Amino acid sequence: MSAKKVILAITGASGSLLAIEFLKLMDENDIEVHAMISDAGRKVLELEEGKTWDDIKDLATSWHDVHDFTAPMASGSARFEAMVVLPCSMGTLAAIANGFSGNLIHRAADVTLKERRPLLVAVRETPFNRTHLQNMLKLHDAGATICPPMPAFYHKLGSFQEMARVFGGRLADLLCIEIEDQPRWGQ
After folding, report:
1. Cα gap 99→107, rounded to integer Å
2. Which CATH superfamily is domain 5-174 in?
3. Could you state, in order of their start, the residue ranges of all structural domains in the chain?
4. pLDDT for the residue 3
5. Are 1 and 77 in contact (CB under 8 A)?
6. Is 99 helix (H, G, I), strand (E, B) or coil?
7. What confidence tens digit (pLDDT) does each residue in 123-175 have?
8. Alpha-helical regions (H) of the chain
9. How many whole angstroms separate alpha carbon 180 and alpha carbon 52?
10. In a 10 Å sphere around its CB, with 0-12 CB exposed, 13-18 middle and 19+ buried, how is residue 146 labelled?
11. 18-61 tens-digit pLDDT
12. Separation of alpha carbons 187 and 183, rounded Å
């Protein structure tokens, strides 16, 4: 079953370009995306890409304030098929892995897990310390898919934007969303 209504959470980890390219892919493929961006995510978006939320707001179906616990994704009765945290900071990883709902991103991820829906977590840090790895294992054991943005070099992509777009396509694959012309091994 293909995910047609997806939650996207953008946190303050490095990698804003990843979220932008994922949003573009979803928009091009008529996937309904309900997005939210943390305060730190807004700052990183500006620092890395020279963009503000106003520059990307039209790429999502709707946006929700990370402090609004009355948003639809705060409840399991809302009909979202999946959630993607892209990029995922280690603070967000820790909150989700340990059941702390300090904002709507954490709560939506908790709801996604309790409803046994796909949760993709694109952790952005290197190197990982023991706590990071333990938190990733906790999330894996809870049903999440840990999917760090690691480029497939065999595609011989020429830019960071191309790498981000291919990674977005990889996430789409994990959500059973078909992306036309997605580079694949041996093709």
Report:
1. 8
2. Flavin prenyltransferase-like (3.40.50.1950)
3. 5-174
4. 66
5. no
6. coil
7. 999 999 999 999 999 999 999 999 999 987 777 888 898 999 999 999 999 99
8. 16-28, 39-49, 53-56, 90-97, 104-114, 130-142, 160-174
9. 29
10. middle
11. 999 999 999 999 999 999 999 999 999 999 999 999 999 999 99
12. 7
Q: In a 3-state reduction of DSSP, which class is residue 62? A: strand
Amino acid in the structure at residue 31: I
Q: Which two tokens stand for residue 173?
A: 């694959």
Whole-angstrom distance, CA of residue 177 vs CA of residue 182: 11
> Which contacts qualify for 152-156: CB closer than 8 Å, 24 or more apart?
152/183, 152/185, 154/185, 155/183
* Structure tokens that stand for 160 in this block: 């960071």
Count CA within 13 A, CB hemisphere, residue 72.
14
Model pTM score: 0.95
Distance CA 111, CA 1 (A): 20
What are the structure tokens assigned to 18, written together? 């990843």
CB contact at 8 A, 135 and 102:
no
- State how far the alpha carbon of 49 is from the alpha carbons of 80, 94, 162, in Å: 29, 26, 15
Tokens of 4: 């047609």
